[in-house]
Amino acid sequence: MAVLNNIEALNQSLMQMMETDDTIIVFGEDSGFEGGVFRVTKGLQEKFGKERCFDTPLTEAGIVGSGIGMAITGLKPVAEIQFQGFVFPAMNQIMIHAARMRNRSRGRFTVPMVIRMPYGGAVRALEHHSESIEALFAHIPGLKVVIPSNPYDTKGLMISAIKDPDPVIFLEPKRLYRAFKQEIPDEIYEVPIGKARVLQEGEDITVVAWGAMIPECQKAITMLKENNVSVDLIDLRTISPIDKETISQSVKKTGRFLVVHEAVKSFGAGAELISIVNEKAFLSLEAPPSRLTGFDVTVPLAKGEHHFIVNPEKIKNKIMELINF
Amino acid sequence: MAVLNNIEALNQSLMQMMETDDTIIVFGEDSGFEGGVFRVTKGLQEKFGKERCFDTPLTEAGIVGSGIGMAITGLKPVAEIQFQGFVFPAMNQIMIHAARMRNRSRGRFTVPMVIRMPYGGAVRALEHHSESIEALFAHIPGLKVVIPSNPYDTKGLMISAIKDPDPVIFLEPKRLYRAFKQEIPDEIYEVPIGKARVLQEGEDITVVAWGAMIPECQKAITMLKENNVSVDLIDLRTISPIDKETISQSVKKTGRFLVVHEAVKSFGAGAELISIVNEKAFLSLEAPPSRLTGFDVTVPLAKGEHHFIVNPEKIKNKIMELINF
Amino acid sequence: EKSEKPSLRKKVLATPVARKMAKDLGVDITLVKGSGTMGRVMKEDIKNFHSSDNKKK
Amino acid sequence: MLTEIYDPLKGEMFQVMDQTGTIVNKDYMPEISDELILKMYRTMMLSRTQDEKSLQYQRQGRMLTFAPSMGQEGVQVASAAAIEKTDWVSSAFRENATWLWLGQPMENLFLYWIGSEEGSRIPEDVNLLPIAVPIGTQCNHAVGIGMSIKFRKQNSVVLAYIGDGGTSEGEFYEAINYAGAMNTPNIFIIQNNQFAISTPRSLQTKAKTLAQKGVAAGIPCIQVDGNDIFAVYAAVKEAVERGRNGEGPTLIEAVTYRIGPHTTADDPTIYRTDEYHQEMLKTDPIIRTKNYMIEKGIWDDEKETSLKEELENLVEETFKKIEQTPDTSLEDIFKYTYAEMTENLKEQYEEYKAFLQRRDK
Amino acid sequence: MLTEIYDPLKGEMFQVMDQTGTIVNKDYMPEISDELILKMYRTMMLSRTQDEKSLQYQRQGRMLTFAPSMGQEGVQVASAAAIEKTDWVSSAFRENATWLWLGQPMENLFLYWIGSEEGSRIPEDVNLLPIAVPIGTQCNHAVGIGMSIKFRKQNSVVLAYIGDGGTSEGEFYEAINYAGAMNTPNIFIIQNNQFAISTPRSLQTKAKTLAQKGVAAGIPCIQVDGNDIFAVYAAVKEAVERGRNGEGPTLIEAVTYRIGPHTTADDPTIYRTDEYHQEMLKTDPIIRTKNYMIEKGIWDDEKETSLKEELENLVEETFKKIEQTPDTSLEDIFKYTYAEMTENLKEQYEEYKAFLQRRDK
Ligand SMILES: Cc1ncc(C[n+]2csc(CCOP(=O)(O)OP(=O)(O)O)c2C)c(N)n1
Ligand SMILES: Cc1ncc(C[n+]2csc(CCOP(=O)(O)OP(=O)(O)O)c2C)c(N)n1
Ligand SMILES: [Mg+2]
Ligand SMILES: [Mg+2]
Ligand SMILES: [Mg+2]
Questions:
Q1: CATH code at A2-184
Q2: What's the CA angle centered on E148, arms E146 and E151, to 5 degrees?
Q3: Which protein residues touch ligand 1 with a CB less than 6 Å away?
Q4: Complex ipTM > 0.90
Q5: Pocket test for ligand 2, best of E197, E205, E263 (most atoms within 8 A of CB)
Q6: Architecture of domain B197-324 in CATH?
Q7: pTM above 0.90, yes or no
Q8: CA atoms within 13 A of residue E94's CA, in its CB half-sphere
Q9: Gene3D superfamilies from the entry (chains A, B) (predicted)?
């Protein structure tokens, strides 16, 4: 067992998987020689050579498009998009090829590829470095979308993503990259894609969140002890496909539901979760299933970002509102 | 008053607006000489010259990106993307520039641009010619998203879109292009963006739909007369920003809610509407607010598309399910 | 079929849970006077209605 | 090196056989057996027959919208003939003669154009990607396959096709540049058929040739007469050798002409004059090849007539068979989104199946 | 025509003044007043001073991540000096000297890098687009502006900047090709500073020069010594004339060097050896220009010292003022998404305002 942060967990999972499977190829802008702008791929080129870990030219469409070609011919590409805000030039390849190749070719060609990207805000960054657009990917059939919140899940989910026979969008909350460390197993292990995790059990309300919102929810829950409110906190971990069962079981128990996310509100992942709760647990509802999210604006630059960010105080307030509904 | 189909209504609105405002520029792949693959821009080049209506090279990023540059410098671009399935190369420009220029520059630069695209399925088309991805655009702050369902609205909304000071994504249900004709005013008139329209009033359930789903809902409603069920049918017309008021008023009256859309189910616009209903009319709900949509798969080619398409029979069935809940 | 619908289209404000409770207890929720904000029918209201109804019998 | 001899920047186009079928450039006539020429001709004719019949079927409402390859069979067959079974092909949507040559069954081609994904189920032994409708995207797939080949130290190459219009898309350029930077065994063939739907080649770019776009990527490039099977064959062979020798990618512009409409939904008379069209018909690669073969004494009218009859029958039989294909099953709609159906999809599938069963009772 | 004389395909780079500040190419020395040279030098120095101070401020935690322009002031100032107030500029994110020259107030520049959108509120009389972070995207905006200018029969041109890394993005190519096809008055300047973050120029493309990428678009192109203000000025002037004369776009590769880190988040010692760095420092455009001016007798140590002092004070004063800027108001977060706040946004705004008020009571 080693004590690692999220960056180190990513690095370890890549390192170990590349050791066991020499069809895994890691690449992206600056991913090779210097190991990526966040050092997630540090040491991989040194260890596995330039053929298995390399710097690409500045071409997101090329990175994903070539990854598709590699995957079709039996390699396992793990491609890095430097920031999620720069994935748009590759949207065409992701949404109309990676997601569809299996269906289009009736299973003859598949794209077992991982597309990693630093995700989310609250790091006082420049424009295009703070968005959360998981909902865009999740709307596309054929893609899986994963967002870990801690080093244990990060390693386990990355390993699952690499082993997954379909394309996985792997979103890494950059706010959590080095935020804390955790003791995690040294060996290869999997955290299943598509399974949420109940982080703590409670009676009064179900709260679903993911990524960097998890620690914020935990802080809010601690604050809520004095109000005598107990919370079922669920780390969704996989945005698509959603673990409807875990969520609906919880809501049937608590009767109240809140989803917390960083992304803007409208047409976000929160809306899908609310709809699922309506479909699966309507008759248990004691209050409107609700969401607490970013505002429907472009993420503000640093001097205004604090308004936008969901924090424990906002979460506590919203939970109390629902408890008192 | 002339009797026009949707194509003719579009053509007339462009023609008339170009006459009154010589900063309006129309362009896209094949939009000039031949007037577009659907002939929406037919006759414009002949009438207004190659400077105001022209063919572009095959570059969606160029079309939208150059449109942004034109708009910033005072022109009013009406750009055509040949099919919505081919908009992805322009996503970068649409989502990270058109949508944000006003906010980024604190109002110094704005993008009063219309981006038109044929939208939706059920026309037995090739791959990438049948999708409905309004939810992707609607999730992006700074964009407006419009989908008309009849020639009257088509003309009025196009005129409003051109006059709108912000970028408008104008989605044209290709299944309705020539499906029927309607008598519409000869003169320039506006249909406001952001306002839904109650097409017919009823007591038992609220049904919200848009585009090509409207005629399907109307057929279903006719079938439902024998079941003695009366429906409030709302044509949403604008996907973003949504007219929450009209919808919540209706649901408060009926207590039941169904949204019908062509797009795939998960993370679609239906989820947003269900969330709005929960926020605005929770205590009136007598059944779970629900959605009837495409399946979460790539739209099948013609030989399988009938499974995917929402039809009056499916709508009727779903409505009865909710009535009997 | 449609005959199952609550009587006379009278609309009440209530949570889904309260509605279910009414249904389970055989209470016509439209007859219950709500004590909540804007006349919302609370679970207590249904319980009270039900027990007084039972007493009457 | 042909790419050094014929400089697109000087407006030089590589041609071996002229419009009449005469060899005008003997030095560069590739070594090519009569048997291979006859096979090429047969495939060109097969593709042409299929297109002609398909146009009829489409008019009769028996086929959906489709994109004919008529006029471009020369570049398609000759380029495909220059590679091996172990090489790969990533094409766009108008490469019918290539597909036939590679062994994609005509059954599949018809299936695709009547609206079945089964048409894109490429046989296991055919190294061909499915039709890529979104312009330009297929080029980066080819680069990735090139990287796979290089990584595995295989000896294969990858052919990718794109249209003249397609060269205006960023992805085309990204792919040729990326392939150059990675030195992958890629061959990019621009089928310059003069039009992108209604938009003439001249509106796509100020560049005098499309071949010269290779200069931007620093890779060898050449313009060839795309209706001259010998020139195409020779140029592609050279590029293939370059690829196999680890010398990286090549860009080839093949000048050709789209005889038919863009697709059956298109009316080319709007944007092409009859005069121009008649003039361009003279460049038809099939006529030219036939003339060459007749001149060489390996072909005659009789053979032509019997081939035509044979191919017409073949196409008709195949289409009739395919036409009977039942609609796509509900299960098949759901089955291929992921390796395993998700709970969500199972739910949608079961729910709809139940609805259908209720309804049909 | 410089673009005809200096052929990037032959490896020819246009230079007027060598590394020592000596004019080595008198024939092409542009007509340029001492006053203008002094003004250029001042702006280069101002930008350099601002960058140096900013690096300090950033280390002190008083500024956020920012991208210094050090080493590239020559190409930036000389290109901006070659256009008029009525022309337009669309830049990326590392054009500080250009921005200063054009009249974007240093206040705004600092505001941007301390995290305020107010920094991108370009003054009404400055024809400059805000910083475009997503690589390559700014080029198509420039094409659109070029189309506006053409449409209105104005006499202006548009300058767009992009980096060496940026030339691998499809949008860069789409823009130059589109501009060529539309014959717009665009000038594209590639600032080849040898790196895209850690990725060296050599990994971006097999093309020997970046200038030659213009061949793909069929437009004139030239490689210039980007640290030679006279070469840059002359090449841009020529391109400007071309644009104003309706002869279409030009592509200019300016060879330069990024002295500092990519941004303050970057550590260039990982991927650049000190030896290489020291060697490249010798190409510094500021030193070179100074040498030229001293040689010409229009500059001396005294002037240098007093200029330095003046600029340091100016930068410090400006930053101190800006540092006091309060946080962005809640209203400003919502106000600029659309011309008018939608009902939805009003709701979110009011709800949050109410929450804050409750909380602060
Ligand atoms: C990205 C994208 N944009 C638009 C289209 C619509 N479209 C289909 S074919 C075509 C023209 C293609 O022209 P060209 O590349 O010359 O190929 P050709 O049709 O001549 O074979 C267009 C615009 C598309 N398929 N993909
Ligand atoms: C589309 C896109 N991809 C990735 C990035 C992240 N990124 C920022 S700067 C940069 C390198 C740019 O290199 P170059 O074009 O040479 O410009 P320079 O930084 O040297 O000025 C990268 C990859 C981005 N901003 N946009
Ligand atoms: Mg073409
Ligand atoms: Mg692109
Ligand atoms: Mg650079």
A1: 3.40.50.970
A2: 110
A3: B 29, 58, 60, 82, 86, 89; D 94, 133-135, 163-166, 193, 195-197, 258, 262
A4: yes
A5: E197
A6: 3-Layer(aba) Sandwich (3.40)
A7: yes
A8: 36
A9: 3.40.50.920, 3.40.50.970
